[in-house]
């Protein structure tokens, strides 16, 4: 499902009007009527309710005027509060506000805080607010009068329904521009915007419905948005069911380099998660002193004891053993719980330069990369990085706060510059590919805020690569399944208290759902006689 930026949506609207001949007023009518249908579906008892339309002077306000007409016809008691001078309304919005008097819909012109305060009694009587104040074109901080209005609506007890984007929310980044409407629901037009799907935008947006306003397919294809939302249909199409002749040799052999004293769990979770995702064989390379510990933890995983330092960390002298073992392997996963001592760092970079197979790098591996991220540009194999915001900040020599301000831009820029596939974890995980395409994952929940979850994801993505999936499909499927496994657990256990190992155990069940989805799709295709 496409996600668009404000500029992409503006260009689609413009091209539809100028090059396809559909009038802007028709698009506005389609938007308003579609939003009204959504509102009525959500609130079937809308008839007789007091509904306030908070409208700005632009096209967002124009959409609100159409909604006012439509819900008036449905039987609601509608009042329009124009937060601007009447003379500032132009074009299609002006045409629509002029129709309100024909339906006896009252319009109160409230261009400033002083007049707003004089309407307090009427404003406080509204049971439902339609937020049509500021649209997707917002580029500056919300201050002054509009900030005051947004605070008033947020503090009210009314149901809040936003038009296209909650007023004050950056439609590209999902960050509030100082303040934002906190909507119960949002009707957006044409396509969902990236900001709807990125935290904290998801919280401000509430329930989201996309309204088809009639943008022609050739216009969409010409713009070709570079952002998409992962959906169950999309990932089920990427999933490849196992063939009946499959055996452990045909489903790939993964080599994992992970673990150090005190962090054997990271190595175990990574290795076992790869097997739970379908890797045929997994070998875990670990410091020799940890071999007996891990052999008892990971019975289905083979181990390769490696030379170690006095501190029990991997020694540089294990380089040749590792590189020899990598021959004929399908994928390397490296980093979870590995440690970042000087000797380990030297070994890490030598392995990267000579691995010759797809590599998944996480945790301590990413921390070590921060010293020399330029090495990524010299690697001629698929590389997948799976940082959380803190690791990404170290990699970029900045702060997690800066990373979170525009996750898509950060992930895309890094993937393009270093020719890697980047999985920026967090609420609304962002997956960026070297060609500039970006995918946002909607699965997952706050219950995943516990240790080991990243190790599970690393193993899942590596396990999929090992089976022959492309880096694109492996990241999409791995991230989706990781989140959907956690979502399934919340239904059984609640949001608090499930473990990374619980998510790992749930993986086969989630894969079976993809199997069933593909089978159902096949059976739904009619036979032609």
General description of the model:
With 529 residues, this protein is an alpha/beta fold. It contains 22 helices and 19 strands. The strands form two sheets. The protein has a twelve-stranded mixed sheet with strand order 8-1-10-19-18-17-16-15-14-11-12-13, with helices on both faces. Strands 4-3-2-5-6-7-9 form a seven-stranded parallel sheet, covered by helices on one side. α12 runs parallel beside α22 (500-523) and α20 crosses α21 (471-493).
The chain-level structural class is alpha/beta
Total E-strand runs: 19
CATH topology of the largest domain, by name, is UDP-N-acetylmuramoyl-L-alanine:D-glutamate ligase
- What is the CATH architecture descriptor of the largest domain? 3-Layer(aba) Sandwich
Note the total helix count: 22
The largest sheet has its strands arranged as 8-1-10-19-18-17-16-15-14-11-12-13
Radius of gyration: 27 Å
Helix content: 40-55%
**If you average the pLDDT, what whole number results?**
96
Largest sheet: 12 strands, mixed
Which features does this protein show?
529 residues; Rossmann fold; 2 domains; twelve-stranded mixed beta sheet; 22 helices
SSE layout and pairing:
Blueprint: E1 2-4, H1 6-18, H2 24-42, E2 50-55, H3 59-74, E3 77-82, H4 91-97, E4 107-109, H5 113-118, H6 120-124, E5 128-132, H7 144-155, E6 159-163, E7 185-189, E8 192-193, H8 194-197, H9 201-205, E9 207-211, H10 217-223, E10 227-229, H11 232-238, E11 253-257, H12 264-276, E12 281-287, H13 291-297, E13 302-306, H14 319-326, E14 331-334, H15 342-354, E15 359-361, H16 364-369, E16 383-385, H17 389-396, H18 400-405, H19 407-418, E17 421-424, E18 430-432, E19 438-440, H20 453-466, H21 471-493, H22 500-523
Parallel strand pairs: 1-8, 2-3, 2-5, 3-4, 5-6, 6-7, 7-9, 10-19, 11-12, 11-14, 12-13, 14-15, 15-16, 16-17
Antiparallel strand pairs: 1-10, 17-18, 18-19
